[in-house]
Amino acid sequence: MSNIRQPRPSWLKVKLPSGENYFRLKALVRDLHLNTVCEGARCPNIGECWGAGTATFMILGDVCTRACRFCAVKTGLPPVYDTDEPRRIADAIRTLGLRYAVITSVDRDDLEDGGAFVFAETIRRTREACPGIRIEVLIPDFRGSIDALGTVVKAMPDVLGHNVETVPRLYPRARAGSNYRRSLNHLRNAKSFGIPATTKSGLMLGLGEEKEEVLAVLKDLRDADVDIVTLGQYLQPTRDHLPVEKFYSPPEFGDFGDYAYSLGFRSVASNPLVRSSYHAEQLETGIR
Length: 288
Hints:
- By secondary structure, the chain is of the alpha/beta class.
- It has helices at residues 20-31, 37-40, 46-51, 85-96, 116-129, 146-153, 171-174, 180-189, 211-223, 250-263, 280-285; strands spanning 35-36, 56-59, 63-64, 74-75, 100-105, 134-138, 159-161, 198-205, 228-233, 267-270.
């Protein structure tokens, strides 16, 4: 494994954030004391998405109880969660006039239900405030709790996402505290409650995985009846995080995307700059 930080290839260079919508959303997030994964995870698409008036809201605070070595979100012991947060999320989504909202969270292993109730309450409050809104959630594994998963599913999000992130061999190094099979079962179990659920998962490439391992994960996800899959390039947030082992080219991502479609996924996004919530509305509606 190389310790040298590789320069990014040309296809990963993006414009600096700017524009009226970007600064409007930035101010709104600050005024309502909200967190976004766009900022917390240092997403390269923040300028494009915020410029278009869309954001992925991060609930349950900005401190994660796990320390995945690819993620820029802060880790440690989180403070008590804010019970007013679901209302403020709903207010932000209404103010922005969004048709499609994405809500995720940090891991909260300190909570008995992993924060499932807060997800459900945020979905309910958002639907009350924004009639006709479509909602996607990106949830933690809740340590495999079926009850916690059911709490979220029964709140009826339009899309329920949970990312496997990488191949099983790399979990001990990249995702300590998580379990590949548990994540697969989490996605599979989302459809066991008798409630229609569109499921979604995502992979980062560039952590040292082999091509055959990526193909095997895609097959596992489809076997778990996952509907939507995303693949994007891992980018090292800081020198303290795992280094990039390989930068995949756009044609290589295209090949993975073609293979995913051949397995029967309803929607696929496979591109170096793709993140799990990138162009989420188009993926949910199946627009290629």
